[in-house]
TrEMBL record:
A Pfam family of this chain: HECT
Top-rank taxon, per record: Eukaryota
HECT domain: residues covered: 145-462
Active site residues according to the UniProt entry: C430 (glycyl thioester intermediate)
Protein name stated in the entry: HECT-type E3 ubiquitin transferase
UniProt keywords, alphabetically: Transferase, Ubl conjugation pathway
Organism (species): Gossypium armourianum
Enzyme Commission code(s) on record: 2.3.2.26
UniProt-listed CDD domains: HECTc (cd00078)
UniProt GO molecular function: ubiquitin protein ligase activity
Lineage: Eukaryota, Viridiplantae, Streptophyta, Embryophyta, Tracheophyta
Enzyme class: transferase
Gene Ontology biological process terms in this record: protein polyubiquitination; ubiquitin-dependent protein catabolic process
Claim: Chloroplast is one of the keywords in the record: no
Length: 462
């Protein structure tokens, strides 16, 4: 019904009759005004329902999708000021995820084309030591402007012996760089991020105790993540849902706490429904922070250490604790990360997606590799074609791999290379090219391919 109001029949009204003026001075027919108001209210209600569904998963997201989304709508939605674009902003949940991804990628392509058309498409080259990847990247790239970030970035790796690795960066080396620097920077051992019990990442409240320039690093990492998304490079960074909400500039509340600390959430809900005298629990408006073995008390209200939690003020206490953990503790880290992120990622683009979908844009699906889709989008050369017996064997072997080995294959084919010892399959991955020898059997191909994808080498060995 909402789709009918917004897209199929948005302005149907009688050809004559009285008109009313809206706040902008434009006259609307009463039927059109009522229809517009109904569409707005329905969109807001469904948006709230969808937010609830994102947390509770009581129905598949597809139940919110409209049936009439087609290529025409997608092409119109890319352009600001169109009816389709307005619907996308007002009710993105009506549009299937795959369609919104197409719109998103088209918007990114449009930005690139405009920059090229104005002759400002920049190219920056950087020399990065593999064993100092984060340090070198930060020192050389943290001051890049928005214009620089939108342009081409090419990397030359230097190995542990100070020798430049061979290879021309046609995109594959940069992908390898992005994978390795994100692995290093978002590693909890580095201290900028912590992980939840489910191993999902969020800013470390105590990052300033480890790194003096931690806020500058958060800004840099935000811009790196945005660059990866801008270039369509998937990076393995599983964020906590409440932090993904911050990328959408949403404030976190009590209902978001389970994605950070489900045990604390259960305790707070217990207090909310506690029927006895809460003051007997001897709780006060203070919270204990524990960072690296150092415990500190922080008041949730001025004079909080002298304010006892009672049945009358327990709701205030619950919300203050939630706000402290979800927002206050990491406000500076989150603010700087978001500023870096927004150098390339516009809010209206991110608003098209919910938190789960945003994680898919960042890391891709963790469920399986669509081998059939990969096969349909592969080009062949060197005497091979889609029906060649070696090619058939290759796709059968890849489909039989575990998800872990399939992910390793994608990494090897897109970001790493290996010496062709005994005619191993090799990847000229600076150009995203897989070189596959004509093996005589599927068993031999599987053995060689497994060996190749489990070897870890730089571009100098190709």
């Amino acid at each position: 019904a909402l789709w009918q109001i917004l897209w199929v029949n948005p302005s149907a009204h009688p050809s004559s009759g009285k008109f009313i003026s809206n706040t902008s001075g434009h006259k609307k027919h009463p039927v059109e005004a009522i229809q517009s108001r109904v569409g707005t209210v329905a969109s807001e209600l469904l948006s709230q329902l969808q937010d609830w569904n994102n947390r509770r998963q009581f129905t598949p997201p597809s139940d919110f999708h409209a049936d009439g989304v087609n290529d025409y709508f997608i092409s119109q939605a890319v352009t600001e000021g169109t009816k389709a674009h307005d619907i996308l902003k007002q009710a993105p949940f009506l549009i299937p995820f795959t369609s919104r991804v197409k719109i998103f990628t088209s918007q990114l392509a449009s930005v690139r084309h405009r920059q090229e058309a104005h002759g400002v498409f920049t190219r920056n080259r950087f020399r990065i030591r593999r064993d100092h990847i984060l340090e070198d990247a930060y020192n050389q790239m943290s001051a890049l402007s928005e214009e620089d970030l939108r342009g081409l970035i090419r990397v030359t790796f230097v190995n542990e012996f100070g020798v430049e690795e061979a290879g021309i960066d046609g995109g594959g080396i940069f992908k390898d760089f992005m994978e390795n620097i994100t692995r290093a920077a978002f590693d909890v051992q580095y201290g900028l991020f912590k992980e939840t019990a489910d191993h999902l990442l969020y800013p470390n409240p105590g990052s300033g105790m480890i790194h003096e320039q931690h806020l500058q690093f958060f800004h840099f990492l935000g811009s790196l993540l945005a660059k990866a998304m801008f270039e369509g490079i998937l990076v393995d960074i599983p964020f906590a849902t409440f932090f993904l909400s911050k990328l959408k500039q949403k404030y976190n509340y009590l209902n978001d706490l389970p994605s950070l600390d489900p045990e604390l959430y259960r305790h707070l809900i217990f207090l909310k429904h506690y029927k006895e005298d809460i003051s007997g629990l001897e709780l006060y408006f203070v919270i204990v922070n524990n960072e690296y073995g150092e415990q500190t008390e922080e008041e949730l209200l001025p004079g909080g250490k002298n304010i006892r939690v009672t049945n009358e003020n327990v709701i205030t206490f619950i919300h203050l604790v939630s706000n402290h953990r979800l927002n206050f503790q990491i406000r500076q880290q989150s603010t700087h990360f978001l500023r870096g992120f927004q150098q390339l990622m516009r809010k209206e683009w991110i608003d098209m997606f919910n938190e789960h979908e945003l994680q898919l844009l960042i890391s891709g699906s963790l469920d399986s590799l669509d081998v059939d889709d990969l096969r349909q989008n592969t080009n062949y050369a060197g005497g091979y074609h889609g029906e060649h017996y070696v090619i058939d064997m290759f796709w059968e072997v890849l489909k039989s791999f575990s998800l872990e080995n399939q992910k390793k294959f994608l990494k090897a084919a897109g970001s790493a290379s290996e010496e062709a010892l005994d005619r191993l399959p090799t990847s000229a991955t600076c150009m995203n090219l897989l070189k596959l020898p004509p093996y005589g059997s599927k068993e031999q191909l599987e053995t060689k391919l497994l060996y190749a994808i489990n070897a870890d080498a730089g571009f100098d060995l190709s």
